[in-house]
User: What shape does this take?
Amino acid sequence: MPALPARAQVATARLARRVAPDGVGERDRSAAVLALERRHGESLRRLRDSVKRVFRLAFAAMSTRESLLERRTAIARALKRYHARLVRKVEAQRGDLAEARRADEHRTHGETLLTYIRQVPVRAATVVLPDPADPGRNLTIELDPAVTPQVNAARYFKRAAKGERGLKEIPPRLSAVEAQAHALGVLLARMTALEEGPSDTALTDDPTLDRDLEAALAKLPIGLRGALKAPAAATAGRGGPGARPRPAAKEDRAPSARLQPRRLKSKDGWDVLIGRSNEGNDYLTHHLARSEDYWFHVHGAAGSHVVLRRGKGSNEPSKQTVEEVAAWAAFYSQARTAGKVPVIVTRKKYVRKPRKGPPGLALCTNEKTVMVRPNEPPREAAHSDEG
Assistant: This one.
């Protein structure tokens, strides 16, 4: 037990002299102390219990403080990794935007190649041709010598079309990622400011920091959260009244990012999981999906396995929801450019993997067929884990 404070030691010495003066022998002093204990035993026990309780509370507070600091550091480490990813994403999207701004140039090159197709040498790596809009100006056009001039022109038109789409789609995406990176950078700067400040003010200088860190952690992709649990699970046993534990979604965590499915929500709020690869399809269908979930796959073409989480209870997705998810399954398939395509719908319990079958192969029974047009999920359907 830690030593008593100096003031308490002085008080104890004074009490001992009052009970037995310095001239009294040790035996008499002990007898006097025993008499004091018999006379004031209950009061002394209460005092002793109070002192023990104070020490217990002090040690518990120190332990809690250390746990909070450790958790804060762990969350900040995960957020820094995600911030670095966002910074890289911003740079990549800025590069895509710069390429998209060359759409007019690519279209001009394609039109020039078709206009002067007979003047393009075979297997040439570059060619200099007059600009159709301004014959007095020449254009230097890079070519792929392995293909014909017609194919080179088609490629330029394809790049132009992609750039034109990018000029519409990339700026809002870039703004959203830049805003997310900026907000996360401000939060990490607050964390850094506290780390560089006095240690005894680490928990009181910014009372909302821990709450903001937990909120940012909840938005991270599952793969970046590591072993960090939800706040309620991490602080079990010391939560205040009314604290409700959050269930841990262990079944949603793939062993590797390569197997992690896309996570979407339908307009009616149903959770939807979409495989990204053959191996990811296997993991989604045969490990993540539950027997009562709905399973979707485009008929007659390769594509992603799609699972609609049905959950427990008697709730059933509406016809509109089934058609909405079926359209997503058609989009994530080789039939995405077709008109109306058939999509198989059945319960996961009727889906099985053939023995020694390759990854992604599945057989099903009791299926129904829905005719839908392939439709890309809207951005608002994506979970926060996507990013």
User: Anything to note?
Assistant: The first helix runs from residue 6 to 19. Residues 129 and 135 are 9 Å apart (CA to CA). Residues 255-381 form one domain. The radius of gyration is 35 Å.
